[in-house]
Amino acid sequence: AIDLRRVREAMASPEAKAAETIARVLDRLGYVKADQIEAALHEYLRHRTMDLFLWDGGSYTYHPGSKPAGGDEAILRAPRFDAQELAREGESCRDEWTKLVSSLPPAGEVLRLDLGASDSGVIPHVPESLRLLLDGTLTLEEVLARARFPRLRTVDLLRALHSSRLVRVARADELLRAADKFAGDSFGRDVKFLALYCAKEPDDVAALRKLADAYARVDRDHDAAEVFLQLARKAEEARDLSRAKEHYRHAVDLDPARVEPKEALLDLCLATWDEKGAAGAAVAIIERHLATGAVADAVGVSDRLSGLKLSGEPALRVLRASGQARRAAVSRVSK
Fold first, then answer.
1. From the centroid of its chain, how far is CA 25?
2. What is the pLDDT of residues 68-125, one digit of tens each?
3. Please, are residues 292 and 308 in contact by the beta-carbon 8 Å criterion?
4. 172-181 and 205-217 are packed helices; what angle lies between their axes, rounded to 10 degrees?
């Protein structure tokens, strides 16, 4: 076993600081031959270089002649590569990447390692760093981002595990348990699991409500409003109209710039002769249409309220909003 204390002491020596790489230090201490480390480093850097061919874009700066931070240049010395050979290999690398990725689950699915599921009973070696990432909490995309291996190597390992049924997509019940584990998490880690669970179980109203609340907690108001719209439509289908109105109002409050929840609420209020609710929704729609210059739409909403028997404050609000809409229409025509 390598004694890290001895290695640190050797690396701190004057000769190591002057020129020696860690490979030379390990060689001098008798742990491993320097050429073995350099061969492994060469292979590692080659794989990392291959990863560059998988980029679709990037942003970086290059400063000729610049030195590494801290002045530790020796540790970054690398073997030379044949640029033409790398370019040829890189092109085939892109083709290989496409084939490998197409054989895996979608990038947004959570992956779980299940070593007891091997069809053949033969369990291949799974590097510990990768095993820890396949705990049923990370998506394929997140695994690739966090893996210590080059991306192509990681995908190749995952493909082998997936084809042997040792890596699978997390089930709906596992996603729900993960969401419960992180419930109320300030980082919003429950959101991912709830969203994936609801995609698999879209009729679970209780989970949808949890998802809407979780989105709102992490200030993803537009997403929360979208889930409340789903809940409202489901409540309408179940003829629970009071709850449908409640969900529509939540959607309106969370995404006030969006007209669709207001229009759905107006339709439902008119259908149930909820004149006060219809007045509130209509005024909000008219104001939004006027703010965006959709004057004709504002007048159209105003016309829909002509048959309502309103009194008091709701009637005054509707009269003011309708008057603004008609004045804006007249002003536009006169121009």
1. 43
2. 555 444 444 555 667 677 777 777 777 788 888 888 999 899 999 987 755 555 566 7
3. no
4. 40
